[in-house]
Amino acid sequence: MKMNKKLGSIAFAMLTSAACLTANATDVGQPAPQFTLPTLQADQPTALKQYAGKVIYLDFWASWCAPCRTSFPLLNKLHEKLKAQGFEVVAVNLDEDKANAEKFLKEFPVSFTVLRDAKGEWADQFVVESMPTSFILDKQGVVQNIHHGFASADIKELEEKITKLLAQK
Predict the structure, then answer these.
(1) Cis-peptide, bond into residue 109, ω within 30° of zero
(2) Among 118, 115, 146, CA closest to 133
(3) Does the model's pTM come out above 0.90?
(4) Were 37 and a residue from 19, 42, 115, 162 both cysteine, which residue would form a disulfide, CB within 3.0 to 4.6 Å?
(5) Neighbours of 116 (CB within 10 A)
(6) Could you give the 3-state DSSP secondary structure of residue 8?
(7) What are the pLDDT digits (tens) for 149-165?
């Protein structure tokens, strides 16, 4: 009887710990998981931490994602408008076939950083369940907003949130 109770307590503790680790990876108010991924076109290792001190729009996307066709031009304009204030867009492509992502970028060229997560390992860490899914990180790397999907009307609200974060010390 005592053994069953102990095993039950241990199992409960393990499940609770695992749930907390998974849930906290992308919760608003939690630090973003740190990663290093290659750039899409040059395979240059790029770490998220190299953007420390900047407000980051971390965008997980794929070439087959219809809303991404809307978001990329608008995010590129926003990046150009706010980058001098310390704003960066870091897009993480999840296509298994690199050629599909390269074709997308020829149609929708951008000036921001595009990384590659072909195995989806970091998309799993961030618990990405829809395309696109984006995370706004403050200057300390803490998740301040999670955004699922994208419609052209979203850019105004996102810009407001980003501008407020840029104004903070």
Answers:
(1) no
(2) 146
(3) no
(4) 115
(5) 19
(6) helix
(7) 999 999 999 999 999 99
